[in-house]
Design a protein that fits this description.
179 residues; alpha+beta; Ribosomal Protein S8, Chain: A, domain 1; two-stranded antiparallel ribbon; 5 helices
Length: 179
């Protein structure tokens, strides 16, 4: 075998190692580290109900046709954006959910996937005590918040391949951009 020479770079462009979905998720996570927007902060806790970790979530606004809801439940409306809430505290997760909805609308997307997980190890309160161990804290909050956002037409637990009861498909109203 002869002498080996390295290839010269001739204006080649290499693709990034991460996928565009990873880049979108990273962008959402980075944006969540900034201040809470007044609108996201307005997502209140009134009427908050804790749900079970394996409970199937399903919600739709009146007026949504049954066919659209069925397509969402069966995973036929593929999400073009996703937000993974693993590792976030409740306040951080609220901001990530809000930003994901706003980003999807800005890009003209109608369906997104929010991965909230099923149950956690709990959280440490101000006194240092662990609270909520084994409860589906983020899942419960996500369900509660999504019902408060006017742009959300429906949400339902995802198919097992997309996270099952640890994630939800969210259907948004058509944004003005796509009309």
């Amino acid at each position: 075998m002869g002498q080996v020479e390295p290839l010269r770079k001739m204006g080649r462009q290499t693709s990034p190692k991460s996928s565009s979905k990873d880049a979108q998720s990273l962008a959402i996570r980075r944006a969540s580290a900034t201040q809470v927007t007044p609108t996201a902060a307005a997502l209140g806790e009134d009427g908050f109900i804790m749900v079970e970790s394996e409970q199937v979530l399903s919600y739709h606004r009146s007026g949504l046709d049954a066919a659209s809801l069925r397509r969402l439940q069966q995973g036929h409306m593929r999400p073009s954006l996703f937000a993974d809430l693993h590792g976030y505290r409740v306040e951080q997760a609220r901001e990530v959910v809000w930003r994901a909805i706003k980003q999807a609308q800005a890009e003209g997307d109608r369906c997104l996937l929010i991965i909230h997980g099923k149950a956690g190890a709990g959280y440490t309160d101000d006194s240092g005590d662990i609270r909520g161990a084994g409860q589906a804290l983020l899942k419960s909050h996500v369900s509660h918040w999504l019902q408060q956002v006017g742009e959300v037409l429906a949400f339902t637990s995802a198919l097992p391949k997309d996270g099952g009861t640890g994630a939800v498909y969210v259907l948004l109203k058509n944004s003005r951009k796509t009309r």
